[in-house]
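Show me any protein, keeping tokens residue-aligned.
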Amino acid sequence: MLGFAFGGFFDGILLHQILQWHHLLSGLEQVGQDIRALILTDGLFHLLMYVVAIVGLWLLWRSRSNSHATTVGGGALLSSVLIGFGGWHVVDAVLSHWILGIHRIRMDTENPLLWDLLWFAIFGVVPLVAGLARRASKPTPGRLLVSPTALAFSVVIAGLISAFPPQQEGPVTVLFAPGVSPVRAMTAIGSVNGQVIWTDTSSQVWTIVLPEGQSSKALYRHGALLVSGSLLPAGCLDWVRL
């Protein structure tokens, strides 16, 4: 479970936020034209990964009393992480890329299949096969290859990177709730001394630049649903008020 969640966070952070190669529903023409839908579905995707991670952390905590797991847990834990991580990318490739077609690894390329296959092999097949091979091999008691605490810490850190609101200078994308007027949106942006770069035709999605050291939290008091720390197309969920 933790390996699966880690694979989802890895995908969201690297492909959605840093490289900005795709959104969850970039491949759907009607949805792809509505940046509000893209932002919100990316956010819901990360919420699902948080649920998976929480369940995985709970299962890891429950297993702490298993003496056999404590003895050989390093190898078994590493196997599970590799299988989960690779499994995520295999499922994502087969289901999301090739069956449903909701997105590809890289949308802005003339040969998306090449990128799909590269990602499928490197981050899907290789770790999945390595995990299965390690699980099938004879356990080596006393060799703690992966610390449960370190694994839990890594997953929590990945979740925080996906969820923490931007605090630094630079562009952010803001999604305001339906009913927030352009005047109120400008008031919100003024409350954080933001400079407007772009807005969509609905005046619900804005890209702004924050001054150095300026927090974006005040935007939520003025009707913001989501603030994302990447340029358009906007990245994944940072903070969502439900």
User: Anything to note?
Assistant: Residues 67-72, 230-242 have pLDDT under 50 and may be disordered. Strands lie at 170-176, 195-199, 205-210, 224-228, 239-240. The chain has two domains: 2-163, 170-240. Residues 67-99 form the longest helix (33 residues).
